[in-house]
Amino acid sequence: MVVFLLFFFAAASIRFDAASQHFTVSGWDKNSEFAVYVERSPPGSPPLLGSSEVQGDSLVFRPRFALQPGLGYRAVLKTAAGEIVERFEIPKPAPVSTTYVAQVYPSAAILPENQLKFYVHFSAPMSRGEAPRRIRLLDENGVAVELPFLELDEELWDPEWKRLTLLFDPGRVKRGLMPRQEVGGALVEGRRYSLVIDAAWPDAAGNPLRESFRKDFRVGPADRLPIDPKRWRVKAPKAGTRDPLVADFGEPLDRALLDRLLSVPGVAGSIRVDREETRWQFTPRDSWKPGRYELRIGTALEDLAGNKVGRPFDIDVFERVKRRITSDSVSLPFRVAPASPRR
Questions:
Q1: Distance set, CA 226 to CA 143, 268, 273, 278 (Å)
Q2: Domain 101-220 maps to which CATH number in 3.40.50.2000, 3.60.20.20, 3.90.226.10, 2.60.40.1220?
Q3: pLDDT of residue 89
Q4: Which class for 221: exposed (0-12), middle (13-18), buried (19 or more C-beta within 10 A)?
Q5: What is the DSSP letter of 306?
Q6: Distance between CA atoms of 179 and 83, rounded to whole angstroms?
Q7: In percent, how much of the chain has pLDDT > 90?
Q8: What are the start and end residues of each CATH 2.60.40.1220 domain in the chain?
Q9: Cis ω for the linkage preceding 47 (within 30 of 0)
Q10: In the list 9, 187, 223, 306, which could disulfide-bond 313, CB 3.0-4.6 Å?
């Protein structure tokens, strides 16, 4: 049992038992008064509620509600000899760090010079408003890149506060814009960088991350070509099986958009994205039936540089865009052939 000796004066003293959370006042008589207050409560606030029991020449006071760690309290004993005041605080328990950075997308080790965004996934809900202080982009010499990311009044979190979307400043990505002309792009082809996330970032419970996170990557050439699904390699499954439909893009695509912009109409199932976001697999809930199907692709789908289906993100004013896709989606047909008869 841990006991804190708070005050001793002549025959009167106050002791607080932290384990059982009760006060013992020795040197007690019927003319004494004892009360406990929250330290920062407004003047005139009432004392803590609780029960009192006289045991010989001592008074035992038990608060009705448990005292809170981190709050200051003031114990006041009034006797015929005067007033004794003692202040104390129950220490906060040591923080328990369990939250960690689960994944950062894109997962590839080589990113285009005009990379548009990162997705930072945490294992548990996080606190908001901390990203500018807790995330740094370092060059190969360990020097922080100045203002690489778009500064927003509100951070871009998913509804669960577990995924943060981190946008590069478009003014330093698109050609012909003043920020890029004045200070250059945030990333330079051929150089190496590290995205570093500070372990001091508190989660939603106020505890720091379990550990810091670092993603090292190299920068390749800029990508200014629109996505062309006709260049994808699509492998159709076999009838009577639950083999996945496989689409190989030949390049990494936006991880979050792949979750909702690719589908097989009329077929329920689950998806899997792997190989550094270059491959998408759709596994049906039930076995495939023979027939014709389609892989539907939302034209808002993006690659790592923000290029969409049939529409580049960065258009030079001197270039002519020969073809634009204006529909919300395009389709790639595929056929599930009947199973071969057994011989």
A1: 33, 29, 21, 15
A2: 2.60.40.1220
A3: 84
A4: exposed
A5: -
A6: 68
A7: 66
A8: 101-220, 229-336
A9: no
A10: 306
Note the residue count of the chain: 343
317, pLDDT greater than 80 = no
Strand partners, 43: none
Per-residue model confidence (pLDDT) at position 128: 94
Tokens of 295: 């892989």
Token pair of 192 as six digits: 């190496």
Q: 117 has which bridge partners?
A: 167
| Closest C-alpha to 135, from 214, 219, 217, 210 | 214
CA-CA-CA-CA torsion sign (104, 183, 189, 173): positive
Q: Which two tokens stand for residue 308?
A: 């969409």
Q: Which pair of tokens denotes residue 292?
A: 């014709």
pLDDT score at 163: 98
- Which CATH code for domain 229-336? 2.60.40.1220
CA angle 275, 281, 284 (to 5 degrees): 155
Reported as a single tens digit per residue, the pLDDT across 142-182 is 999 988 998 888 999 999 999 999 999 876 665 555 555 45
Q: Which helix (H) or strand (E) holds 14?
A: strand 12-17
pTM score, two decimals? 0.72
**For residues 209 and 57, what is the distance between their CA atoms, to the nearest angstrom?**
51
The residue type found at 131 is: A
Q: What are phi and psi of 330, to 5 degrees?
A: -130, 165
Q: Rounded to whole angstroms, what are the CA distances from 10 to 26, 33, 263?
A: 10, 17, 82
User: Is-contact 82 76, C-beta < 8 A?
Assistant: no
The residue type of 314 is: D
Q: What is the token pair recorded at 161?
A: 């506060």
Across the range 65-86, mean pLDDT stands at 87
By the 8 A CB rule, do 107 and 55 touch? no
Tokens of 322: 């020969």
Class of CATH domain 3-89? mainly beta
